[in-house]
Amino acid sequence: MEKQSGYTWKLGMFVTIGLLLFIMAVYFIGKQQNLFGSTFHITSQFKTVSGLEVGNNVRFSGINVGTVEQIQLKNDSTVVVVLVMKEEVRKFIKTDATASIGSDGLMGDKVLTISPGAKSKKVIEDNGQIASVDGIEMHDIMKSVKKSVDNIGVISDEIAIFSHSMNNGNGALARLVKDDKMANSVSNTLSNLESGTKGFSENMEAAKSNFLFRGYFKKKEKEKKEKQEERKEKQEEAKKEKLEKQEARQEKQEEAKKAEEKQKQEEAKKAEAEKK
Amino acid sequence: MILNIKNTFAEIGETTIFAKRFFKEVFIPPYETREFLKQCYVIGYRSLPLVAITGFIMGLVLTLQSRPTLVKFGAESWLPGMVALSLIREIAPVITALICAGKISSGIGAELGSMKVTEQIDAMEVSAVNPYNYLVVTRVLACTLMVPILVFFADAIGIIGGYVGINIHGDVNFYRFLTQIVQSLEYLDLLPATLKTFFFGFFIGIIGCYKGFNASNGTESVGQAANSAVVTASLSIFIIDMVAVQITDLFF
Questions:
Q1: Are A233 and A271 members of one domain?
Q2: Exposure class string for B40-73: b at 16+ Cβ within 10 A, else e
């Protein structure tokens, strides 16, 4: 009998631990699927669920709080989605919360996201219904992409016409770009303009020395000079102030250094005294 | 050639009859409880170190081997889930069953073979003890029940091995690692895998017993019995695995 009990307890331990591992696995997987523990249900109606499947996660504020339990077609344009969620989060979900379907990462599963509402303070009931927001569908994105591409097509057509008329047309721009004669006449015009403006400035100098305008120009020069002198005075004053401030700072810093050195010396002395 | 094929079929037929007799005699008293427990101890507890080591290594190696590919796709965070999934669904059951086929099936084959050759089985029959009930039923039943438990151990230890493997390259909290695994598992991963281990255990036991029980006279046939028990059991494990996976795939 003693010999038997020598291995039976080992066998018992082996079997117990093995079964315990299995039960733990079953429990944790079940917990993941919300089969155990208190839960509550929410329904929501969508036009399309875009590939959402039974068992997908439900997220509230980014936390996994439940799973999709059922997806049913109600009529040709309505799908009813039943969610099973942890009882603990019910108090945070109000009656005006909204459900939307998004995807988890680039290649990930679909995820049903519950977003909190703004006004309502009433906690949602078991089997209550919340509104839904249709998520961005791939074909919606493609639609807007198509619109932009169409616009780009129109633009490129116009650019093509423009460049064609630039190359082959007889308009002013086209001739400016292509025609040698045009370019020469433009540069001639520009040099004429240059000499014209030189003549104009000479005329102006002559006008200044004319007795009719002399008084006016003299007044202007006087005002200019006065302004410049005022500026100079101001700048000098500012420089002086700066210098004074800097001197004051330097003095302060030196004082502080001296004080520190004194303190250090005292401390060193104290330490030496303590050592002794 | 044709004789060879005929012999093979004859052996399959005889094994089937042998297995049928098992189901008949399981329910007929006397129940050899003490012998059954002893066989459970030998088959289950004694095989645990071997299974633990292989399970740990499989978990570790699987993690290290599949890491580079996942890193290439930027999906390194899927590593725990993937390793646990492949361990629980396929690798732990098959590896454990193969180890058991090597250890248990050959042991049973050699033991019963030598008993047959030394005419101990005949002696039992003479002394009014049903040798089938005492020797075969207890061993097969113990195998059928112990192999799944060994697989649970292999699963758990393999996951720990995977944790070690992940921590060689990065730093992952054990709790985070476990949550990732649990998140990626479903009942569908666990239950079919567990069900097929019962079949693995049954076939390991029944093939070992059949080979031993039908050893022809002569000492060399003991070695032959042990050898062919291992080969046939290993082969049958792969065939059962294929069938089981196909059936699971069909229904789910």
A1: yes
A2: bbbbbbbbbeebbebbbebbbbbbbebbeebeee
How many angstroms separate the Cα of B241 from the Cα of each of A83, A219, B101, B237? 36, 111, 14, 6
Confidence (pTM): 0.61
Per-residue pLDDT tens digits for A92-151: 888 888 888 887 766 667 788 888 888 888 888 888 888 888 766 677 788 899 999 999
Domain range holding A162?
141-177
Rounded to a whole number, what is the distance in Å from the CA of A18 to chain B's nearest CA?
A: 5
The vertex-A82 CA angle with A81 and A85, nearest 5°, equals: 130
Which tokens hold the place of B92? Answer: 């732990």
* DSSP H or E segment with residue A51: none
Looking at the fold, whether A91 and A41 belong to one and the same domain comes out as: yes
Q: Check CB contact of B149 with chain A, cutoff 8 Å.
A: yes
Domain count for chain A? 3
For A28, the closest of B156, B182, B194 (CB atoms) is B182
What is the ipTM metric for this complex? 0.72
Query: Which domain, by its residues, includes B114?
Result: 32-251
Amino acid present at A213: F
Q: Is residue B186 within 8 angstroms of chain A, CB to CB?
A: yes
Instruction: Find out whether the peptide bond into B30 is cis, omega within 30 degrees of 0.
Output: yes
Q: Contact, A137 vs A48, CB < 8 A?
A: yes
Q: Which two tokens stand for residue A7?
A: 């291995």
C-beta atoms of B182 and A8 within 8 A: no
Would you say residue B13 lies in a domain? no
Residues A19, B155: C-beta atoms closer than 8 Å: no
Residues A251 and A259: beta-carbon distance below 8 Å = no
Query: What is the Cα A150 distance to its own chain's centre?
Result: 29
